[in-house]
Amino acid sequence: DGFDPVLERKLRARIRRNVSCYGRFMPRMVVIPPGVEFHHIVPHEGDMDGETEGNEDQPTSPDPPIWPEIMRFFTNPRKQMILALARPDPKNNLTTLVEAFGECRPLRELANLTLIMGNRDDVTEMSSTNSSVLLSILELIDKYDLYGQVAYLKHHKQSDVPDIYRLAAKTKGVFINPAFIEPFGLTLIEAAAYGLPIVATKNGGPVDIHWALDSGFLVDPHDRQSIADALLKLVVDKQLWAKCRQNGLKNIHLFSWREHCKTYLSRIAACKLRQPWWQRSDDGNENSESDSPSDSWRDIQDISLNLKFSLDGEMNEGTGNADSSFEFEDRKRKLEKAVLTWSVQKSTQKSGLTEKADQDSTAGKFPPLRRKNIIVIAVDFGAISDLSESIRKIFDAVAKERTEGSIGFVLATSFTLSEVQSFLISGGLSPSDFDAFICNSGSDIYYSSLNPEDNPFVVDLYYHSHIEYRWGGEGLRKTLIRWAGSITDKKGENEEQIVTEDEKISTNYCYAFKVRSAGKVPPVKEIRKLMRIQALRCHVIYCQNGNKINVIPVLASRSQALRYLYLRWGVDLSKMVVFVGETGDTDYEGLLGGIHKSVILKGVCSGPTHQLHANRTYPLSDVLPIDSPNIVQAAEKCSGADLRTSLGKLGFIKC
Predict the structure, then answer these.
(1) Where are the residues of the annotated region Disordered (predicted)?
(2) Is residue 382 domain-resident?
(3) Can you tell me whether residue 444 is helix, strand or coil?
(4) Alpha carbon separation from 384 to 221, 314, 393, 426, 542 (Å, rounded)
(5) Closest CA to 536 of 487, 605, 590, 482
């Protein structure tokens, strides 16, 4: 979403005052400088006046060839050198540097200026912009009579650059980058590594470099006087020059590759872990089945068992009175229930959840789908009652395997759990016919309970902790309500609201809206764009023939829910088959492709309204390999036998 400094300041102020940010989050962006190789760099320790004398073991090495090439420009080559290394481009602002040097007489008397402006053979053969800058510099040299004080080489090799830095350091010189704006400033880091104090533009990357190295000054590139003053300070004040040199050499390691990797990894480690908490291990060992939440439930059952034994022992020591026995049994049941409830709440708090943990001990047991091949029914109809025929055909196709218990079923829809429950009752189906239910377009996951008498469905609370990342909550809901109020249909003098909130079926992780006229509602990407402008992130899904809008967390969808089942229960995706229609809700594409198998039911959900609010305006074959061996298209009005043949082609069952 980019980085908005104004938004960051506002959010930081609101957080400090403990005021609600309405679902907006602090921008998560960190600037990490790249690394530079320093192992070959050796700062020069000598100077022009006091050369280190050689001996038999370590004779003095001859001067590099590039040094005489530079020295020949100067009348007095022992002066301190001001070095600039940049192409003759207008944005590098070299003309302002020459003007600042020419107008400051004390600086001219104490220092020489060296301009390394790339390589050239003939000025007339250079590009128009580069040649104009070079000619302007030559005119300024003539204007200020800088002959014998400015060097401007025609040629140099890349291997000569380290020697140029060493020469500037040997003369106790200064490096300057006067560009109008510098994205990073690699030459500043190189200069500091060779022991040169730096003067740099205050616009761009040099600000961060200066903050890290503290080896010079930042200047306004438009202010010639400011540039001259900064250079003169470093040239005149030997103690300041030595301090800046030492700071640069001391702090230059901050830009090494080792430091870069260290900073990068530490920032990554500080980020909030995105994987489910049950997969984390404090001791770094690999995750195993024993790390699952089911272990905590085994502990709870052990507590209950021990409690039962202790209470039974206490009862045996009693008087044996019938009334007291009845009272004791009632107290025992209440105490056991209290222990279970307390254990659930502790487990929920540990995982960072805020929902009430009101499920019984079956919530933590592995669902049967962990051990089965899986069939996911994700056919999108306008009404859930239309699902019945498709489900019957699929059940008939795998009747043998269903009886053996080798196949599990997952129902993935945009409907609420109450609508699914009503459908199961009306269709003569049982919750136990399915192993899991993905409801509200993927914002909720339920499992069929092992104790259907108490509650036929068990909600997966851990899934909510998995998808709540950057969920706007109430702030998002209010923004959506304001947006819905702006979508109206003018009929004469009256305005009819097209989109209205459906409070009855909205949940904490799914805000539902009714749509009166699907053709007059903006596409999904427009709503998503509007929410992002408000710094709110969500997943907008048009469903049920465009008659309903579900707004869910950005990490939630039916395909993400299937991925979650793989992550949590180890479901083998290669042994999963997803049944879909020809088209569907706006998360339809996410259900196709990948490792799992897919069966497309031709003629199902193929009406024009299903395509009205799709994410795409292009054929599905453009983005999905319809000829893939993992995708099979069943014929229109196919029977259960036809579906069994399709499953056989996928290698899912043996025909």
Answers:
(1) 41-66
(2) yes
(3) strand
(4) 68, 54, 16, 11, 15
(5) 482
CA dihedral for 580, 582, 586, 591, sign (positive or negative): positive
Q: How far apart are CA 130 and CA 463, in angstroms?
A: 61
457-459 and 444-448 beta bridge pairing: antiparallel
Any alpha helices (H) in 146-198, and if so which ranges? Answer: 161-170, 186-193
Digit-coded pLDDT (tens) for 279-319: 544 444 443 333 333 333 333 344 344 444 344 444 444 44
Least confident range from 57-66, 90-99, 292-301: namely: 292-301
**Number of folded domains that form the chain:** 2
Both 84 and 223 in a single domain? yes
**One domain, residues 69 and 215:** yes
Which residue among 245, 261, 277 closes a domain?
A: 261
**Residue 111 counted as domain residue:** yes
| Domain boundary, last residue among 261, 290, 323 | 261
SS3 label, residue 330: helix
* Mean pLDDT (whole number) for 496-504: 90
Mean pLDDT over each residue of the chain, to the nearest integer: 81
Q: Name the residue with tokens 């005021």.
A: 19
What CATH number has the domain bearing residue 192?
3.40.50.2000
Q: Are 579 and 377 in contact (CB under 8 A)?
A: yes
Exposure of 479 in the CB half-sphere (CA atoms within 13 A): 22
Residue 90 domain flag = yes
CATH of the domain at 596: 3.40.50.1000
Residue at 20 is within a domain: no
- In the β-sheet with 597-601, what is the strand arrangement from edge to edge? 457-459, 444-448, 436-439, 407-412, 373-377, 576-581, 597-601, 631-634
Residue 572 is part of which domain span?
371-654
pTM here?
0.54
Both 251 and 391 in one domain: the answer is no
Which residues make Cβ contacts (< 8 Å) with residue 210, sequence separation at least 6?
A: 198, 200, 216, 217, 218
Give the residues across from 597 on adjacent strands. 577
Query: 577: helix, coil or strand?
Result: strand
How do residues 142-178 score in pLDDT, each as one tens digit? 999 999 999 999 999 999 999 999 999 999 999 999 9
